[in-house]
Specification:
The complex is a heterodimer of chains A (about 130) and B (about 100).
Chain A lengths: L1 E6 L8 H14 L3 E7 L20 H12 L3 E4 H7 L4 H6 L11 E4 L2 H9 L2 E5 L2
Chain B lengths: L1 E4 L8 H6 L4 E5 L14 H7 L3 E6 H6 L10 E4 L1 H10 L3 E4 L1
Parallel strand pairs in B: 1-2, 1-5, 2-3, 3-4
The chains are: A alpha/beta (about 130), B alpha/beta (about 100).
Chain lengths: ~130, ~100
């Protein structure tokens, strides 16, 4: 079965980023496919590579990047939500005249259409948020 | 339909909203698992709805809150694999945020 996941809560906020990650792992372990994971609203903060939690704490961002790399996942960050919160890739840096980028590996910035497409293409869309 | 509730019933009225929808399956996760406590304020409401709804709670979230051994009868504890199965087995799912 084809799953997509929507994350709309930031990391280290309540629990949704952790639940979404554990759910994604369980989906893959069950042999299902993940079409896309979409990060919206404060969920885009899951995609900054500058996050530095204490050494004995989980690194939520690196965990997503690793999961994406190992399973060839499509992690998409909403562009409008990203701009508001300072999540920047090369294209956005140039377009908006910024002097740095911070998008973590495995993520890409795109539009809300990617969420709609995920909803259409997937058998299930599961929402994790606040 | 699978209803996913992630907030405590003492914080948000999601459980009441779900019960008003009529029937289906309810999965309690995160702070939503507090609704599952035996002898809690939600017990009568949940027991009364068991004919129309099937109730589940995420084991790791029960354990994290120290209430895994205090779940009322009739609520099934599931792990993440069970969570995935519930989503797959129900045609639609709604997270009550």
């Amino acid at each position: 079965m084809k799953f997509s996941i929507l994350v709309s809560e930031g990391p280290y906020t309540h629990q949704s980023s952790d639940t979404a990650y554990q759910f994604a792992k369980a989906v893959l372990a069950k042999g299902h496919e993940i079409f896309r994971i979409f990060f919206y609203h404060d969920g885009v903060n899951n995609a900054t590579r500058l996050t530095t939690p204490p050494q004995d704490d989980r690194n939520i961002i690196n965990r997503w990047s690793k999961l994406a790399e190992e399973n060839n996942l499509d992690l998409v960050v909403c562009v409008a939500a990203a701009q508001r919160r300072g999540i920047v890739d090369d294209g956005e840096m140039k377009r908006n005249g910024k002097d740095a980028t911070n998008l973590a590996p495995g993520f890409r910035i795109s539009g809300l259409g990617q969420l709609i497409e995920a909803g259409i293409q997937s058998d299930r869309l599961v929402v994790f948020g606040d | 339909m699978l209803h996913i509730i992630n907030k405590s019933p003492y914080d948000r009225p999601a459980l009441d909203s779900v019960l008003a929808t009529g029937e289906g399956a309810i999965l309690l996760i995160e702070d939503g698992v507090y609704a599952a406590v035996k002898g809690g304020a939600e017990e009568n409401k949940i027991k009364g709805a068991m004919g129309k709804f099937k109730f589940y709670a995420l084991t790791v979230d029960l354990e994290a809150r120290g209430i895994a051994d205090r779940v009322m009868d009739g609520i099934t504890a599931v792990d993440y694999a069970g969570f995935v199965d519930l989503v797959a087995d129900n045609k639609t799912c709604q997270s009550w945020l």
